[in-house]
Amino acid sequence: MQASRRRRTAMSNTLYCGPVQKAEAYCLPRFQTLESHLSYINGSLGGNHSFQTYRDRYCMLEASSATGSCAVYHSPSTASFSSNGSTTCNQESQPYLSDIRQSPETTNYGSPISGSCITDDATDFMHKLKQLETVMLGPDADFQESYDNSLASSIASSEIDSWRQMMLAVPRRDLKQVLIACAKAVSDGELVTAQVLISELRQMVSVSGEPIQRLGAYILEGLVARLGASGSSICKSLRCKEPASFELLSYMHVLYEICPYFKFGYMSANGAIAEAMKDENRVHIIDFQIAQGSQWVPMIQAFAARPGGPPHIRITGIDDSTSAYARGGGLDIVGQRLSKLAKTFKVPFEFHPAAMSGSDVQLKNLGIQPGEALAVNFAFTLHHMPDESVSTENHRDRLLRMVKNLNPKVVTLVEQESNTNTAAFFPRFLETLDYYSAMFESIDMTLPRGHKERINVEQHCLARDVVNIIACEGIERVERHELLGKWKSRFRMAGFNPYPLSSLVNATIKTLLESYSDKYRLEERDGALYLGWMNRDLVASCAWK
After folding, report:
1. β-pairing, 536-544 with 410-416?
2. What is the pLDDT of residue 280?
3. Residue 178, class by beta-carbon neighbours within 10 Å (0-12 exposed, 13-18 middle, 19+ buried)?
4. Residue 62 has pLDDT above 50, yes or no
5. pLDDT category of residue 253 using cuts at 50, 70 and 90
6. Average pLDDT, the chain
7. Coil, helix or strand for 161?
8. pLDDT higher for 138 or 396?
9. N or C: lower Cβ tally within 10 Å for the chain?
10. Could you tell me which residues belong to the region Leucine repeat II (LRII) (predicted)?
11. For strand 373-379 and strand 410-416, is the pairing parallel, antiparallel, or unpaired?
12. Concatenated DSSP letters for 57-124?
């Protein structure tokens, strides 16, 4: 999958109350509605099960909130793989749903892994597992030194350290620490340790439990996917069918209403544009990911009320043609909707569609006309553009230089405040765990855990990004966030200067937050606005000229 074919990230789509716009979905477990409770169904993993097995199982489990049905699927083939990465196919049909657990309170993963699907030497694995079990059961302190010496004779010292970390976390049922230990084992290539931890994690995560349990369920799928394949095969294996467009629309609308992150981002961007264009008669707005176009509804209404009359507005909407699925049609739907609104409010309006990925945009696609004041909107989209670490073309910086040459009056940037672009796997994992822990905790404050749509909201709006960050590398990893400090460096290198934010908009956003939890915080520093949950910054917004 190419980044150019990615649809909009969950966060950007959320403001538009539209579906996740991604050209190809990352497969995550589907959840069934069984007697008003959503249960995760997972089969036990035997010695010959592989990532092919995982993939088929997860891609075949479809959400069925309308019917409440549950089906057992079989695959025509499975494959086993060894520690050296080789694979062998086993052409036989095997059932994947062997353990169904239902509870009014939580929905857990199924049975633990039996045997090893990663090591060629089953005897050696069972020996190590026996040693591990002995330690976890708590051997006498008098024999600890002799035990460590025995263990060291058969296992590498780095693996011993990982196992010691695991031994401290697992008995305490410290899910966060077990997730970290598992990610460290994956990062270090300690496959036996990783599999033991994966088996344990399947008993600890829950898609309807505490925030860390719910996030842990999706993180676990990312770790399994990363172990099972490498490079492009990971994301290809994770593709699965999107839910219906109207269902995604509903999920995004729910998330948009319960979290202020997306309203914050678009309100701050619109405020900067309105301020810059307050005296202009002809305004051209270029939106590098227009999706449903809903961001511009309040903008058109605001211009209609401007003293002296509204300006002539032209909007260039950029969007990958594959996003037609999300809208139920092409960009003409967005144009018709905005044109009808503008006509109602008597605002002169034109819409210019540019059906392509943002990274493919060239100057000729923008329809620049003389005499127009130009505003460019980069809201939750630049992090999808490959940079110098992915492609020699470096579209991330190329687009900024191209836009600067257009001499815009204002350029708005809204991005998630996270560092997952060039970080190595393990620090990237830690950053993802920390960031999305705050996100899931904030959802927990507003949306009850028993809410029938909550699993769908988290799965389709957030979880796919989590899996992509953890499981994928290279061009396949399209969720590449950077901290605002890095974005500032890129804008300055392109020749931009900071544009001051509107104090009126800041006050409006503060009023907005009063209707949410008091754990949200808004902070203005160094010419930018930050919205966070408790002590974690989650979204940053700024403007440039």
Report:
1. antiparallel
2. 96
3. buried
4. no
5. confident
6. 74
7. helix
8. 396
9. C
10. 333-365
11. parallel
12. HHHH---BTTT------EES-EEEE-TT--EEEE---EE----B---SS--B--PPP-S-SS-S-HHH
- For helices 425-446 and 211-228, what crossing angle results, to 10°? 150
| pTM score | 0.71
Q: What is the mean pLDDT of residues 451-471?
A: 87
Percent of the chain with pLDDT over 90: 49
Token output for 333: 């739907």
How many whole angstroms separate alpha carbon 404 and alpha carbon 73? 54
Pair 85, 233: CB distance under 8 Å: no
Distances from the Cα of 215 to the Cα of 205, 248, 261, 394, 518, angstroms = 8, 20, 18, 32, 23
Give the distance between the most distant pair of CA atoms in the chain. Answer: 87
What is the pairing mode between strands 78-81 and 373-379?
A: unpaired
Please give the Cα distance from 439 to 317 (Å, whole number): 29
In this structure, the dihedral spanned by the alpha carbons of residues 133, 134, 137 and 142, taken in order and rounded to 10 degrees, is: -160
Give the span between the Cα atoms of 232 and 474, in whole angstroms. 8
Q: How far apart are CA 9 and CA 333, in angstroms?
A: 20
User: Which amino acid is residue 17, in one-letter code?
Assistant: C
Buried b (16+ CB within 10 A) or exposed e, 447-479: bebebebbbbbbbbbbbbbbbbbbbbeebbbbb
Q: Give dist(CA 27, CA 256) in Å, integer.
A: 23
157: β partners: none
- DSSP characters for 229-263? --THHHHHHT--PPPPHHHHHHHHHHHHHH-SHHH
**362-399 pLDDT tens trace:** 999 999 999 999 999 999 999 999 999 998 889 999 99
CB atoms within 10 A of CB 205: 26
282 — phi, psi (to 5°)? -130, 120
Residue 264 contacts residue 295 (beta carbons within 8 Å): no
Quote the CA–CA distance of 145 and 458 in Å, as a whole number.
46
User: Per-residue pLDDT averaged across 73-95, rounded?
Assistant: 34
Q: How far apart are CA 365 and CA 342, in angstroms?
A: 24
Q: What's at 99, amino acid-wise? A: D
The 3-state DSSP composition of the chain as helix, strand, coil percent (nearest 5) reads 45, 15, 40
For 310-338, how does the pLDDT look when each residue is reduced to its tens digit (9 = 90+)? 999 999 999 876 566 666 778 988 999 99
